[in-house]
Design a protein that fits this description.
This protein is of the alpha/beta class and 207 residues long. The chain contains six helices and nine strands, in the order E-H-E-H-E-H-E-H-E-H-E-E-H-E-E. The structure holds 5-O-phosphono-beta-D-ribofuranosylamine.
Length: 207
């Protein structure tokens, strides 16, 4: 590959890792601005770890239960990321809340994807809660992480219509189709230094 060196990133997962896969697939393309240097999971045995191994990327378990508190767990996650040279943390279905110290270690460099249009339906059950509420439109939010859960400056949102017969599974499946398209794009923009945070607003620079 020619051109600029790629920005090393860590991807944090807790489960299937389909978003991780979309980033890994994109990163095989010439000129992609990010390189996944490590995948970190808070639990063993998840498919995301296998996806990393299949792609030849180091896969590390930092088990939640091995640490006395959130601060110690967060420090361990950040240490693994830093030891592999990561310059950003990309949360992709990571089901643990990192302590604020992660933001000190990676300021403006922690990104999350959420399966709803924030600030609606934050938390771990955003898809089910959107259906239960009866919204006609939900969607995908990609945002920088701040000290509050599912709250930081929004980088990108894309709506997904809710169908009358949708279940959590069917809606989440369509949301994930969007996630797999937009998350690699956002990660590339982040890695290329094209995202500028101004308070709660994120400006996309360049084309
Ligand atoms: C995604 O829908 C993401 O929005 C949410 O968790 C899910 C993770 O899916 N935070 P996967 O592990 O990437 O398949």
């Amino acid at each position: 590959m020619t051109g600029r060196p790629r920005t090393p990133i860590a991807v944090l997962v807790s489960g299937s890792g389909s978003n991780l896969q979309s980033i890994l697939d994109a990163s095989t393309g010439a000129g992609y601005a990010a390189e996944v240097v490590v995948v970190i999971s808070d639990r063993p045995g998840v498919r995301g770890l296998q996806r990393a191994a299949d792609a030849g990327v180091p896969a590390v378990v930092v088990a939640w239960g091995d640490y006395p508190d959130r601060d110690a767990f967060t420090m361990a996650v950040c240490d693994v990321a830093a030891d592999h040279g990561a310059e950003g943390l990309i949360l992709a279905g990571f089901m643990r809340i990192l302590a604020p110290s992660a933001l000190d270690r990676f300021p403006g460099r922690v990104v999350n994807i959420h399966p709803a249009l924030l600030p609606a339906f934050p938390g771990a059950h955003g898809v089910a809660e959107a259906i239960a509420y009866g919204v006609k439109v939900s969607g995908v939010t990609v945002h920088f992480v701040d000290a509050e859960v599912d709250h930081g400056p929004i980088i990108l949102q894309e709506p997904v219509p809710v169908r009358p017969d949708d279940t959590e599974e069917t809606l989440h499946a369509r949301i994930q189709q969007v996630e797999h398209r937009v998350y690699p794009e956002v990660v590339a923009a982040f890695a290329a230094g094209r995202l500028r945070i101004e308070g709660r607003h994120v400006q996309w620079e360049g084309t």
